[in-house]
Amino acid sequence: MSALTLTLKISLQQRLDVSALTPERLAGKQPAEIAALTLPYGRQQLRVDAIFDLQGEDTQEIILANGSDKLDYVGREMKSGSITVHGDVGAYAGFQMHGGKLEIRGNAGAYAASGMSGGLMHIHGNAGDYLAAAIPGDRKGMKGGTVIVNGNAGDRVGDQMRRGILLIEGNVGSYCATRMLAGTIGVLGSVGDHIGYGMRRGTLLLTRKPAAMHATLQDCGTHTLPFLSLMFKSFADLPTRFAAIGSNRVQRFAGDIANDGKGEILILQ
Amino acid sequence: MIINGVQIDDTFAEAFNMRGTRVIITAQNLKWAYNAANAMTGFATSVIGCGVEAGIERELTPEETPDGRPGVAILMFAMSSAVLTKQLETRMGQCVLTCPTAAAFSGIEGSSDEVTRISLGKNLRFFGDGYQISKQFGGKRYWRVPVMDGEFITEETTGMVRAVGGGNFLVLAESQPQALAACEAAIEAMRKIPNVVMPFPGGVVRSGSKVGSKYKSMFASTNDAFCPTLKGLVRTELSPDIESVMEIVIDGLTAEDIRKATRVGIAAACSLGAKNGIKRISAGNYGGKLGQFQFHLRDIMSDPSLNDLAPGAQA
Fold first, then answer.
1. What pLDDT, in 10s, does the model give residues B193-219?
2. Radius of gyration of chain A (CA)
3. Residues of B in contact with A231 (CB under 8 A)
4. What is d(CA B207, CA B139) in angstroms, rounded to the nearest whole number?
5. Could you report the per-residue pLDDT of A58-89, keeping only the tens digit for each?
6. What's the CA angle centered on A98, arms A92 and A102, to 5 degrees?
7. Which of A94, A76, A91 is nearest to A22 (CA)?
8. Yes or no, beta carbons of A262 and B135 under 8 Å apart
9. How would residue A1 be classed by pLDDT, with cut points 50, 70 and 90?
10. Contact A50, A106 (CB under 8 A)
11. How far is CA A45 from CA A37, A41, A42, B284, in A?
């Protein structure tokens, strides 16, 4: 069986919700049934075959042959299989994803990996604001799994993140790891202002010290932490530059001590 | 059956169902991994007095360990899962948590009907008094506990499996140094076999026991039939030329592992041969009534499937 390939054939004017296009929701469906499904498009409902050209039938392996920043909810609640997007996606990519692999060979919009609890998301380009953060009303952001971003990410990365691993190879915006509950965020590039504001637990790993840090992030000195070797070794099979970090010597800041102070910001030396 | 002039008795070792687990201990270098592992497997020769039987299985290279540091694998056996769990926890707390730079990881993976997850560092984390940090990598949970040398790292659980304890054989020789030399050769060969440990000091035990005693308070006492100084006094198992007997006890994760260890151990002892004073190989049992496993020496020494491990008896 060949992968189910969907090629966008119209220029999207409205936002398109592709929640329905996951391996689980399409499992057991014939190509004709998939073509007849309807997707919310702005205020309308459009048939899949009115938007996409369809090829192949393996619903465990879904390919979106081109992308658009208006494709929302790619891989929503997916549990297994894989979705590969050769292009950009809109907001809420991997929303409440439980498992499987979501690969975006382009950029992602806001709220990527929000509510994600398992699986692997790999964004080759940049991610928007609120990566792995909670949507308004939710009390937890990302709850598990692994996210790799080869490019940059926007503001509020990992806001209220609860568990999981978030690896960003580029730069991130302001308010990174704010109100973080637990989990691990790594940033190879630069970070903006107000990192770790209200951070309760969790680890933010940086390669260089930010220009300014809140007074409620307290310096605990420089240490060699063996758990970092364990962590980098566990990245060995992942497509990320984090796996190649050899050093486990870090300066450790604890905080936010205005919010229990069990979190940490580690700066690689 | 005679191998290199050494008589192999037509008898069997009697072994028991046990519970076993493996723990990987790493440290800054092998020296400190051994310090932790030796402490953890110390006073663990026999379940009768120590609760568990334990030993070092082998050294691990940095490539083989989870954290990329040198380490050793230890095996620990007990008669019940409750005792094993308790002993593992207390020994982890007193011997690994305390040892500078040491960390502990699961040595048996998975969870199934065969493998039960038991606590490794799960309760040690409370030593952190609220400053402990949990991390999950690759589906496994680890604990980071702040200690005075930095951080103590331990995996939350390790795997416990059904195992076999009490495999054994006896080396009967013309003198004490000769018996010891044969046992040393046997232990050196047996330490290359995976999944087994020989829990006694240096792998060798000299105080084999029989069931019962003339004293009411004792349920086991010296095995007088194999004591060379009592040859003229009791119903002895020894011929006049035997002056010393030593035993090697083997615990393993499976019966097959014990068969392999028995084969290489006896073959190594026999390689010294009659000319070095090694006269007989025997084994300890309780008439076959108590143990769930029997390891027949002649069967093991003539098993052609073990030929590539060590030479056996010619058919």
1. 999 999 999 999 999 999 889 999 998
2. 19
3. 135, 137
4. 46
5. 999 999 999 999 999 999 999 999 999 999 99
6. 60
7. A76
8. no
9. confident
10. no
11. 9, 6, 8, 81
Task: Characterize A239-253 residue by residue with b for buried, 16 or more Cβ atoms within 10 angstroms of its Cβ, and e for exposed.
Answer: ebebeebeebebbbb
Mean of pLDDT values over A31-51: 96
CB B67 to CB A163 under 8 A?
no
Q: Specify the pLDDT at position B289.
A: 84
The partner residue sitting opposite B153, judged by closest CB among A223, A226, A234, is: A226
- What does the alpha-carbon distance between residue A112 and residue A148 come to, in Å, rounded to a whole number? 11
CA distance A84 to B97: 45
pLDDT of B315 > 60? The answer is no
CA distance A59 to chain B (A): 26
Reading the block at residue B260, the tokens are 């392999």
Distance CA B285, CA B288 (A): 6
Placement of tokens 């006694």 in the chain: B200
Can you tell me the ipTM of this complex?
Answer: 0.92
- Secondary structure percentages of chain A, helix, strand, coil, to 5: 10, 30, 55
What is the chain B residue with the closest CA to A236?
B138
pLDDT digits (tens, 9 = 90+) for B15-68: 999 999 999 999 999 999 999 999 999 999 999 899 999 999 999 999 999 999
Mean pLDDT across the stretch A121-132? 98
Indicate yes or no: CB of B153 within 8 angstroms of CB of A184: no
Token output for B91: 């020994």
Q: Which band of pLDDT confidence, cut at 50, 70 and 90, is reported for residue A175?
A: very high
Query: Does A224 contact B134 at a Cβ distance shorter than 8 Å?
Result: no
d(CA A218, CA B69): 30
Model pLDDT, residue A111: 98
> Closest Cα of chain B to A222: distance in Å?
11
Per-residue pLDDT at B314: 62
Least confident piece of the model among A5-14, B153-162, B265-274, B281-290:
B281-290
Of B101, B130, B151, the CB nearest to A227: B151
Select from B68, B136, B144 the Cβ nearest to the Cβ of A163. Answer: B136
Q: What distance in Å separates the CA atoms of residue A228 and residue B35, rounded to the nearest whole number?
A: 23
**The pair of three-digit structure tokens given for residue A268, joined into one six-digit string:** 């690689």
Contact B151 A225 (CB under 8 A): yes
Beta-strand relationship, B150-155 and B140-147: antiparallel
CB contact under 8 A, A225 and B138: no
* Element of type H or E holding B268: helix B255-272
**Each residue of A151-168: pLDDT tens digit?**
999 999 999 999 999 999
Q: For residue B155, what are the CA distances in angstroms to A182, A265, B25, B138, B143?
A: 18, 22, 11, 12, 6
What the block records as the tokens of B143 is: 């604990």
